[in-house]
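Homework help thread (please don't just give me the answer)

Our assignment gives two proteins as sequence + structure token strings and asks us to describe the second one. The first is just a warm-up. Here they are:
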Amino acid sequence: MGLSCFVHTGSLACYTSMIGMLPDYNDTVIFAVSNAIGLGDASGWALQLLVDTIIESESKTDYVALAKEAATNHARREIDNANALERRVPQARHHGHP
């Protein structure tokens, strides 16, 4: 038998949120909020970890490894973006832009 889980995500400047409802577990509701956007899905991972704990899942997701991977990927994108911008600056100056 499957487990019913209803999830909704949201975000605004400076925060992300996720709400999960588990009607098969005494109508349990979980609300996870993180006060930052950028490196990864902290509120999503928190909700998943809590659901795994509540339902006593045998899944052993390594959320620390996911967070480290997300941070590394974010840092790489920042470096790539900075390098791309540096390559464009001399071209813009050459075409008469300050």
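The one we have to describe:
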Amino acid sequence: MFGALKPSEIMRVLHIVEVEHLDKGDVVFEDGDPGDAWFVLYEGSVDVVKESQGEKTVIATRRKPECFGEMAILDGSPRSATVRAAKDSIVLRIQRSNFNKLLEDGELVAYKLVYQMAVLMSQRQREMTSMLASLLGTSELDEVFIGINEIVDEASVKN
């Protein structure tokens, strides 16, 4: 996420970054929590967990240097899944209010990061479209049902 930034731009972002150390099993946020920040994995990995019909399922794992909760920085919507540390991890947390201040101040670095988020969301949307397209060619109803559930669960992580 920060790879395309110049050193001076990284320095501008560093003052709004909070470093959080997570032990395996620590919850970063719960389904339904306010979308007040986004996160970049500096070290370790996290599991994205979705509950459906009373059963909790790991629907994705994010590893360094991936980010998660990126849509919250844009729209502040409540979380659509729970994220917990899969192992001891370090995450960089950027509060939505602090990021919005960079945007309001016209900081180029904020717009570069929004662009990177848009690219990431576009890639994830293309993956969803590909999964859905492959399901359309399936004639087995059970396979279609399972596949659609996987797509819905995966799509809900993006908030």
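TA reply:
I won't write it for you, but here's a hint about the kind of observation we're looking for: The domain at 7-156 is CATH 2.60.120.10 (Jelly Rolls).
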